[in-house]
Specification:
This is Leucine Rich repeats (2 copies). Pfam families: LRR_6 (PF13516). With 282 residues, the protein is an alpha/beta fold. The protein is built from ten helices and twelve strands. The chain has a twelve-stranded parallel β-sheet with strand order 1-2-3-4-5-6-7-8-9-10-11-12.
Length: 282
Amino acid sequence: MLAGEFPMLFRGAKWTTEKILDRLTTRRVRTLELYNTSAGDDLLLELAGTGSLTALDVSSAHITDVGVQVIVRQCKLKSLMFRDAVGVTDRSMVDISGCKTLRELYLEGTSVSDDGIGHIGRLPELWSLDISRTAVTDIGLERIASDRIRLISFNDSQITGRGFSSWSVPDKFSLYTRRSQLDDEGFAVACRSFPFLWNLAIEDVPLTNKGLFSLAGQQPPSMRINGSRIDRDGVLWIIENLPVQLLETDTRQFSQADAKLYENYQGRYLKILPWDHSETDQ
């Protein structure tokens, strides 16, 4: 949620459209969070009439393209976040692409695919995009062809990274992915498209040391590589060649003893966190 916004939050099936509207009667809502409520498109239709919403965060299967169409056309949204909203499909992407004020767009767990995602490349202010648990692949990534987005998340996806070939971002860029298909070739493409990779979380992906070396010359201050195929030699390469200050690995890649030995390597601040993720991943 955008800084400075104080949300009205409703959680649970007890909150119907009628009950939420009753609570909002005397308020001009700017930020609204709906988590697993019983409210549907009818709520968005009512709220769109006020034109006051700037941020909407929804986790609900009751919201569909119908509600999205109205809310993005009548409100000056800066942040639009969906989670597990399977009723939001490629049809909504055309309408969302007309919301020129939008800065954050999260589509996690929606039914968006390669067919529609390319439309969001038109958004002039968009800096943060989450396409986790969608059907978007490298084909869709390539259609976005962004030079503005500064942060992307694509967890639990089939994305390899090759679709970044059409992107070109000359500023700091953060990349977060877990359980995707990001591989050596795709990561090399990403490194070429994003010469200033900043915060990197590449967890549980098939990336190996070979792909890691594509980072040569970059200066990420923070990296998470646990669950990747990067081994101890790769971790040592990171320590010796990149100015990383915080590095998270798993204990198969780097031991606690290793971490202690290389802490504050050659006088520079460096914190290495080798964690056993086997329990948290279950």
